[in-house]
Amino acid sequence: MLREESDSAELTGSTVFKDERKQAYLNPEGADRPLISPVPATTLDRVRRYRLERLRGKMHEWDCGALLLYDPVNIRYAFDSSNMSIWTMHNASRYALILADGPAILFEFEGAEHVNDGLPGIDEIRPAKSWIFFTSGNLTEPRLKTWADEVADLVSRNGGNKRVAVDRLEPAGAFELRERGFKLLDGQELAERARSIKSTEEIELMRWTIRVCEAGMARMYEVSEPGRTEREIWAELHFENARSGGEWLETKLLTAGPRTNPWYQECSDYVIKRGEMISFDTDMIGPYGYCADLSRSWTAGHVAMSAKQKELYAAARDQIEHNLAVLKPGMTFEEFNALSWRIPEKYQPYRYTLALHGTGMADEWPGILLHPDFDPDFSGIIEENMVLNVESLIAEAGSESIKLETQALITARGAERLDTFPWEEI
């Protein structure tokens, strides 16, 4: 009872130290106000043209007659068209067909065609032919054939060859297209290779998404007090993202104290105690559909870290700073692996498998594993204008986990961090 009364009193925050460096990320117009994007419409128009040109360029390289997209992230990349993204991730009810020598067509959910008004990359909008069991039931087979006939007719009439790249398709759909003589290629690879190189304007959009994410992190920091639940703190990020034009969070990775180890436990109604480590990974799809994937760790009540917490935190910072410093354009994945930070043996059983991963409208290729897990046959080159996330997760037997992550642009000079939200002082 005494513990509960103490925690309840602490919720007021009147005696909690606040970090002024982090408060600077709250909206200067007031914490009760959403952030309003300053990005001009002309920037967004240039981004739209660039992205569609990237896809068409890859189609030309691959000698594709058409690119068929069902993944809502790829549709957003191609057209900047967003409609029920989470629902259509598991209900294949809208899709796009980009013809190599013809139009770019969006097949929209019936009755929602108007959500695409003003999008310049779309040459034609047609009603989607859905053949998922949810809406088709016993009519799935005839609707599937009608869908495949329309796709085949469009490719044929626009002079496309029989090589069609498809990002995601149920087996029955793939079978019907093959029955019509099409050779199916991996459209997800095509799309992710196109997405991996960012334009200057894309980086401007990503910086704004990160700005919104960091405002959400500042809100999380302000309420990271004893007596709160993990879910309460996590909700602050959702709130800031939603009201400032963002979209969704890919995961629920915020835990505290003993629940930080092992990692990958989702946030819960666990009541956090003073001095426990709070660790999280934002995985936030924010404004303009871009991802802000940042991780931080700090103590509940913002009290000084224990000796063990400081040790783990220092190791995580070492990993982040070392790997940032070695990144440069033109290096192979294997060269990066050889130069990357070596995780001490006592931390290895609790490691995060990724050292780096690409980021754009979601986590993207390449996912480069930490050195104990790296496969030397995994090939590729780190290129200028990639955006890569540098990861660290440090823990040992019986300890809490420290999770840190930063997002960086690869420039001619090396890695330039896009996020600036302060690390903890230890």
Automatic annotation (TrEMBL):
<protein>
    <submittedName>
        <fullName>Xaa-Pro peptidase family protein</fullName>
    </submittedName>
</protein>
<feature type="domain" description="Peptidase M24">
    <location>
        <begin position="204"/>
        <end position="412"/>
    </location>
</feature>
<dbReference type="Pfam" id="PF01321">
    <property type="entry name" value="Creatinase_N"/>
</dbReference>
<dbReference type="Pfam" id="PF00557">
    <property type="entry name" value="Peptidase_M24"/>
</dbReference>
<dbReference type="InterPro" id="IPR000587">
    <property type="entry name" value="Creatinase_N"/>
</dbReference>
<dbReference type="InterPro" id="IPR050659">
    <property type="entry name" value="Peptidase_M24B"/>
</dbReference>
<feature type="domain" description="Creatinase N-terminal">
    <location>
        <begin position="51"/>
        <end position="197"/>
    </location>
</feature>
<dbReference type="InterPro" id="IPR036005">
    <property type="entry name" value="Creatinase/aminopeptidase-like"/>
</dbReference>
<dbReference type="InterPro" id="IPR000994">
    <property type="entry name" value="Pept_M24"/>
</dbReference>
<dbReference type="InterPro" id="IPR029149">
    <property type="entry name" value="Creatin/AminoP/Spt16_N"/>
</dbReference>
